[in-house]
Amino acid sequence: MSRADVCVVACAEAWRGDGPVLASPTGLIPRLGARLAQLTFAPELLLTDGEATLLHGDEPEGWLPFRAVFGVVAAGTRHVMMGASQLDRFGNQNISCVGDWHRPTRQLLGVRGAPGNTVNHTTSYWVPRHQPRVFVDRVDMVSGIGHDRGAVEIRVVVTDLAVLDFATPDRSMRLRSVHPGVTVADVLAATGFPLTVPSEVPVTREPTGTELAIIERLDPDGRR
């Protein structure tokens, strides 16, 4: 078992209890997580091949052309797991630029679908490198809105160190669990703002034998 396997399971858990919503994972680890969830505890989860076909495992089970996704977004029946170049304590996300808007030091993706996602349906984030330049006190530009700006629900942030959520009175970021081998101090040192830390922080659960076998089947070349 690797840290990547733990992250796959943590991403899968983000969709637990969602019911028949469209899961839209961005990146390999979230994609493996969504497929793992569908093949284990969330068989009703909807997944696409990225174009127009709905899949269950490797089998086609329906048709969802891209134009129809906008209706799913507007209806709120979607849970996307996006990336983030910057995140603040309330879950405001930046994927647009680094530095001053008028003279940025880095050009990134642009806002993409982040505004529509965060105002319409549940959004989570996957951050492969938990570090202070990602977890910042104030994002340089708001691409996806956070809880202080009216987001529907920013559910979890899964990183290579921990799982974070927003289960606090002001809906600011909280440390939910640390991955095996990671300490609370490690996470705090890698975060550029104060986190809410419960009195007891559990360890992120490891994959079961069955889950690990599925992950291996889904990623036989070990790209994760």
TrEMBL record:
InterPro entries referenced in this protein's UniProt entry, alphabetically: CoA_trans_fam_I, NagB/RpiA_transferase-like
Key words of the record: Transferase
Range of residues in the leader sequence: none
UniProt xrefs under Pfam families: CoA_trans (PF01144)
UniProt-recorded Gene Ontology molecular function terms: CoA-transferase activity
Gene3D superfamilies: Glutaconate Coenzyme A-transferase
Family under the similarity heading: Belongs to the 3-oxoacid CoA-transferase subunit B family.
Name the UniProt record assigns to this protein: Acyl CoA:acetate/3-ketoacid CoA transferase beta subunit
Species: Actinoplanes octamycinicus
